[in-house]
Write a structure and sequence with these properties.
single chain, 453 residues, alpha/beta, Rossmann fold, seven-stranded parallel sheet, 15 helices, 14 strands, 33% helix
C-alpha cells in the first residue's frame, strides 16, 4: 500500500508549512480517511482510538474550507464564527484550540477558546474582535449567547468532539439549545474513540446521511499499550502505588481515581512522603488545573492524579505510564484513560490496581474491549502497607519501602524531592526504639505499701 502525504490531501501550502513545522510527516489513518470526506462537505461520524490524531482530522479540512474567508480586516463583521467545535471539558477545549492555532499560524484565520471556571469578562473582548473558529464547552458558550457577545447564525461547520460524552452525561439540553441557534444548512461532524449503539441512534438527530468511518474496532485499545492488572486489597493500594513508582523507569505517571476527594487525599499523602505530585479535578479552579497540568507537562511534577475529567483532552507527548488507582465503573472510561499513553504510535504502559470489590468492573471492561488483561497478584510487604484507617499524618518511612524498589545506593531518587536516606530510628527488624524506664514515684510507692499492710 502506497503511503500518502498531506500534500496528497489537497491542503493549501500555508497549512502544509505549519504541519511540517509541527513535525507532521504523514497523515494517520483517521486523518487520511476523514479529511477528504470533510472537504467534500459531507456529514461524518468518525471512530478511532484515542491518540490517533482526531483533532487534525477535522481541524485541517475546516481550515482549508475557510481559507477563502480569511481577511486582514479589523472589522468584527469580517470575522464571524464559521466553525464551532463543542467539547465536554475545559482541558480538551484548550488542547483543541492550541492545535487549531498551530495549524492556522500561516493563515489569516482567527481562533478562540471559551470555557467555564474563569471570569467571562476576560473572554468577551476577544470575541468582540471576531473569530472564524470557536472552540467551546456548551455551558460557557450559552453564557456568551445570553450576554449577546457571540452570534452563531453564520456557522458553516459544527464539530462534536468526544461525541459519546457530549451526547451522554447530561449535555443533551445544552446541545439542543445550541443547535437551535445554528443554521439548518451546515456540515456536522462527530468524532470519538467510542460509539455505542445508543449514541449512534442519538446521532441521527444531528447528522444528515453521514459517512461512517471506524479506523479500528469500536472501543478497541491501542496495541502499543501494555495493559496489566494487579489484584490487591483496597488497604494495600497506596503501598503498591509507591512500590510501582519507585520500581518504574517512567519519568511521568498519570494516576486516575474515581472521586475528587480521593485524588486530593492521594496527592497530599504522596507529597508528605516526598513524591512530586499534584491533583487535577473539577473542584479546583481553572487556574489551578492549568498550573498543575503545565507543571506536569514540563516535568516539574512527576505524578499527576486526576478524575475522569482528566481522561478527556490530556495530550502529553511521550507519556510513558497510566495507573488506575481505582478502575472506572463505566468501561468506556477505561478506554479513554489508558489512551493518554501510547499516543502517536509511541509505546506505553497501563496498570490497574483492582480490589476484590472492583472485579465486577474489570469483567465489564474486558467484555467491552474483547480482551482479557494480564493479571498479577500484588505482593505488598505488610510493613509497607498503610491501611485506610491509619491515623492522619501516618505515612511510610523510607526504610519500609521494599529493598528491590528503593534506589540501589544513597543519592538522588528521581521520584522524590530529597535524597534517599534511611528513616531516623529505623532498624533492620523495623522495631521501635525502646522507651527509657520511668523513675519510681516515692509517693505512689508509699501508698501501695500502706494498702498492702
Amino acid at each position: 500500500m502506497n503511503t500518502i502525504s498531506f500534500a496528497d490531501l489537497n491542503l493549501a501550502p500555508e497549512i502544509l508549512k505549519a504541519l511540517a513545522e509541527s513535525g507532521y510527516i504523514t497523515p494517520t489513518p483517521v486523518q487520511a480517511q476523514a479529511i477528504p470526506i470533510v472537504l467534500e462537505g459531507r456529514d461524518l461520524m468518525a471512530g478511532a482510538q484515542t491518540g490517533t490524531g482526531k483533532t487534525a482530522a477535522f481541524a485541517l479540512p475546516i481550515l482549508q474550507k475557510l481559507l477563502p474567508h480569511a481577511s486582514t480586516s479589523t472589522s468584527p463583521a469580517r470575522h464571524p464564527v464559521r466553525a464551532l467545535v463543542l467539547v465536554p471539558t475545559r482541558e480538551l477545549a484548550i488542547q483543541v484550540e492550541e492545535s487549531v492555532k498551530a495549524y492556522a499560524k500561516h493563515t489569516r484565520l482567527r481562533s478562540l477558546v471559551v470555557f467555564g471556571g474563569v471570569d467571562i469578562k476576560t473572554q468577551t473582548p476577544h470575541l468582540k474582535t471576531g473569530v472564524e473558529i470557536l472552540v467551546a464547552t456548551p455551558g460557557r458558550l450559552l453564557d456568551h449567547v445570553e450576554q449577546k457577545t457571540v452570534q452563531l447564525n453564520q456557522v458553516q461547520v459544527l464539530v462534536l468532539d468526544e461525541a459519546d460524552r457530549m451526547l451522554d452525561m447530561g449535555f443533551m439540553p445544552d446541545l439542543k439549545r445550541i443547535l437551535a441557534l445554528l443554521p439548518k444548512q451546515r456540515q456536522s461532524l462527530m468524532f470519538s474513540a467510542t460509539f455505542s449503539n445508543e449514541i449512534k441512534k442519538l446521532s441521527a438527530e444531528f447528522l444528515i446521511n453521514p459517512k461512517l468511518i471506524e479506523v479500528a474496532r469500536s472501543n478497541a485499545t491501542a496495541e502499543n499499550v501494555t495493559q496489566k492488572v494487579y489484584l490487591v486489597a483496597q488497604a494495600d493500594k497506596h503501598a503498591l502505588l509507591v512500590q510501582l513508582l519507585r520500581g518504574s523507569d517512567a519519568t511521568q505517571v498519570l494516576v486516575f481515581t474515581k472521586t475528587k476527594i480521593t485524588a486530593s487525599r492521594l496527592a497530599k499523602q504522596l507529597q508528605r512522603e516526598g513524591v512530586s505530585a499534584d491533583a487535577i479535578h473539577g473542584d479546583k479552579s481553572q487556574l489551578e488545573r492549568m498550573q498543575a497540568l503545565d507543571a506536569f507537562k514540563q516535568g516539574k511534577v512527576a505524578v499527576l492524579i486526576g478524575t475522569d475529567v482528566a481522561a478527556r483532552g490530556l495530550d502529553i507527548d511521550q507519556l510513558p505510564m497510566v495507573i488506575n488507582y481505582e478502575i472506572p465503573s463505566a468501561p468506556e472510561d477505561y478506554v479513554h484513560r489508558i489512551g493518554r499513553t501510547g499516543r502517536a504510535g509511541a509505546s506505553g504502559t497501563a496498570i490497574s490496581l483492582v480490589s476484590p470489590e472492583e472485579e465486577k468492573y474489570l469483567k465489564e471492561i474486558e467484555k467491552l474491549i474483547k480482551h482479557e488483561i494480564q493479571k498479577e497478584n500484588a505482593v505488598v510487604p505488610r510493613q509497607a502497607a498503610r491501611t485506610e484507617s491509619a491515623p492522619r499524618g501516618e505515612h511510610y518511612e523510607r526504610s519500609h519501602v521494599p529493598h528491590h524498589a528503593a534506589p540501589k545506593k544513597p543519592g538522588h531518587d528521581p521520584w522524590f524531592d530529597k535524597p534517599y536516606e534511611p528513616a531516623i530510628g529505623a532498624t533492620t527488624e523495623n522495631k521501635q526504639p525502646e522507651r527509657p524506664a520511668s523513675k519510681p514515684n516515692k509517693e505512689v510507692a508509699a501508698i501501695l505499701v500502706r494498702r498492702q499492710s
